[in-house]
Each structure stands twice: as structure tokens, then as C-alpha cells.
Write a structure and sequence with these properties.
disordered C terminus, TerB-like, 2 domains, alpha+beta, 218 residues, elongated, binds zinc ion
Length: 218
């Protein structure tokens, strides 16, 4: 016959191992956390007496109450920012050079525009000689334009995407006209960047207006 009173049982007891600050992925900023451990206890009259198996550890953000695996404490937002920056630089370099190669020939004016763009977005400046070597590499490797661009696309906002398309247009227009192969490559970039057709058309229109001021410093 079952007893009318529950006198034995188990209960999860949580304890805090450590408290400090961390970068909460949900709050997207530096905030306070508690590193907690849950352990099952054997209870007698609801009083935890004997520690049983561990139920695991987790990290709880005291701001949003989100819980994460302990590894989240190793996450370094600066390191990931740097990683993104270098991916972004690779994407810019690669796509601008491919843009320059799209119409089958390279002229000096194009080289200067590409150099200017790469150095505007990059950490370390590239000389024209270094650019020449890089252009050689890119033309030999024949990697599609999506290679690096697709990796950064999800992290870019509308402005960031627009910036890349505008730079590509500046490269395409450097030799005086934008031909079909260049237009096709820009359309391909817009697809990789998940940009709508109307957005792309808007950029073309605004570039036509700015044409004489922005990138034509001879
Ligand atoms: Zn949080």
C-alpha cells in the first residue's frame, strides 16, 4: 500500500560556481553572468540530503535570463570582430579584382580605383606592385565571386551591401563605361548579397547622379 505522505524523493539543487561579466550573445553586450551547476539530491521530507548525479552546468545571463553552455564564456567578441574584418577585406579585395577582370582587360585607371577601395576598407595598405601580384593570383585561381562574398553577406546590413555594390560600380566605370560583362557581374554580386532588383536599380540611379563627383578624381 502506498504511503499517503511523500517522504523520500529527489530534487534538483542549483548552486553558483562563479559570477562575473561576459559578452551575452542574446543581449549583445557585456553583462553579468552566473555560472551554475545543477545537481540532483536525494531528499528526505523535502530536505536535500545526499547529492546524486550532476545534471550539468550552464551559464545564466542575469540581465536577459538566457542560459548558455559554459563554453560561451570563452567567446571573445573582439576576436570574432577581427575575424569578420579579415573576411570582409578578403571579400572586398577578391570581388573588386574580379570586377576589374570582368571585361577582359585591365587599365591603369581601374587599378588605381581598385587600390583606393582596397586601402579604404583594409587594415594595411596595398601598393600598386602588391596589387599587380594579387591580380595575377586571382586571375590564375579563377575562384567564383561568391567565394568570399557569400561568407560575409549574412553579416552585412543594407548599407554594407550597398557599399560593396557601389565600389564594384566604381571599378566597372573606371575605364569610362560599364559594359555587359561588368553589369552581369554586378547582378551576380547583388544575388550573392541577397539584394533586391529594385534596390540594385536604385543604386545604379544614384551612381549616375553622383558620377562626376565621387570616384572620378584624375
Ligand atoms: Zn543576456
Amino acid at each position: 500500500m502506498p504511503s499517503p505522505f511523500i517522504i523520500f524523493g529527489t530534487r534538483a539543487v542549483k548552486s553558483t560556481i562563479k559570477e562575473s561579466s561576459f559578452h551575452c550573445l542574446q543581449c549583445e553586450r557585456e553583462t553579468h553572468f552566473r555560472h551554475r551547476k545543477a545537481r540532483k539530491f536525494f531528499t528526505f521530507y523535502f530536505i536535500p540530503l545526499i547529492p546524486l548525479n550532476s545534471l550539468g552546468e550552464y551559464v545564466e545571463c542575469t540581465t536577459c535570463k538566457g542560459t548558455f553552455v559554459p563554453r560561451v564564456l570563452e567567446y571573445d567578441p573582439n576576436a570574432s570582430q577581427n575575424a569578420f574584418q579579415s573576411e570582409y577585406e578578403k571579400a572586398i579585395r577578391h570581388s573588386m579584382v574580379l570586377m576589374m577582370l570582368a571585361d577582359g582587360h585591365i587599365d591603369e585607371e581601374e587599378m588605381l580605383v581598385v587600390q583606393k577601395i582596397i586601402n579604404k576598407f583594409g587594415h594595411s595598405d596595398m601598393t600598386l606592385d602588391e596589387l599587380e601580384v594579387f591580380v595575377e593570383q586571382v586571375s590564375l585561381q579563377k575562384e567564383p565571386i561568391s567565394t568570399y562574398l557569400a561568407r560575409v553577406a549574412p553579416a552585412l546590413n543594407a548599407h554594407g551591401k550597398e557599399m560593396i555594390i557601389k565600389c564594384a560600380l566604381a571599378v566597372a566605370a573606371a575605364d569610362g563605361h560599364i559594359d555587359e560583362s561588368e553589369q552581369a557581374m554586378i547582378a551576380e554580386m547583388a544575388v550573392i548579397l541577397e539584394m533586391s532588383n529594385s534596390h540594385l536599380k536604385g543604386i545604379y540611379a544614384s551612381m549616375a547622379e553622383e558620377k562626376d563627383t565621387s570616384f572620378s578624381e584624375n
